[in-house]
């Protein structure tokens, strides 16, 4: 069944693959982005997917942006909270600003994205929420005290929403990608990246489309009994 889907951070990296995969399923998709106007315009030109600019770290911007999307495309049935940033530094060098920026985007941003949409999902008796967490929220990571804290927190959000939404036809699940071939991972120094790939039993980085396929499944009508779960897609690097 064709539904309306919102993907935050949906014009680049894993988010772009998710937006395209949801469109290929027949859904009406809106993709948000924070700042890169050029990439968003190119994405819309290439895919026909509408993009909307707002900062997920701001509740007011999120609420207003979501209202615009719903005016354009109708009530949102599928939310993919994907927008995320890194500000990596060993803990002794991590600044309060690096901590706060990551908390605002990766954790508060998930609240800000889901909260304005939640009442409508409850009223209509249907919703699919997928939060993109990370392997590093499951296992921790050197130089990512901030990022790992948010991604672990995202799992808490999902497990709690799953309990609150179940009776209203809403599911909330998480996908924990491992190291995927995106700009975020390519920004890691090459030597470090090579050593990380050496720790992945699959012997390679993942592809964004491999994460997108998890999301299309979890957001389908057929996945109604999967609720509060975490899918790890990491090439065998870490098992919970
Ligand atoms: N484990 C143990 N030690 C490590 C390490 C690790 N994983 N990585 C670096 N170190 C050590 C280095 O060997 C070095 O030790 P020495 O001082 O004894 O030589 C020290 O830590 C690095 O110190 P620096 O002062 O040089 O560190 P820096 O301030 O320049 O920071 C860094 C460098 C930010 C840590 C950089 O190495 C880095 O980016 N590492 C990768 C972090 C990472 O994996 N991020 C994931 C990004 S992808 C993502 O987040 C997506 C996802 O969800 C999976």
Residues in β-strands, percent: 15-25%
Individual helix count = 10
Low-confidence sequence ranges: none
CATH architecture label = 3-Layer(aba) Sandwich
Biggest sheet strand order reads 3-2-1-4-5-6-7
Mean pLDDT: 97
CATH topology: Rossmann fold
CATH superfamily: NAD(P)-binding Rossmann-like Domain
Total beta strands: 7
GO biological process, one term: poly-hydroxybutyrate biosynthetic process
Pfam family, one: adh_short_C2
Family: Belongs to the short-chain dehydrogenases/reductases (SDR) family.
GO molecular function: acetoacetyl-CoA reductase activity
Main features:
240 residues; alpha/beta; Rossmann fold; seven-stranded parallel beta sheet; 10 helices; 47% helix; binds acetoacetyl-coenzyme A; acetoacetyl-CoA reductase activity
Verbal overview:
The protein is α/β, with parallel strands linked by helices and 240 residues long. The protein has a single domain (4-180, 208-230), classed as 3-Layer(aba) Sandwich (Rossmann fold). It contains ten helices and seven strands. The chain has helices at residues 13-24, 37-47, 59-73, 96-114, 118-124, 135-139, 145-165, 183-186, 190-197, 208-218, and strands at 4-7, 28-33, 50-53, 78-81, 127-132, 170-177, 230-233. Strand 2 (28-33), helix 2 (37-47) and strand 3 form a beta-alpha-beta unit. Helix 1 crosses helix 10, helix 3 packs parallel to helix 4 and helix 4 (96-114) packs parallel to helix 7 (145-165).
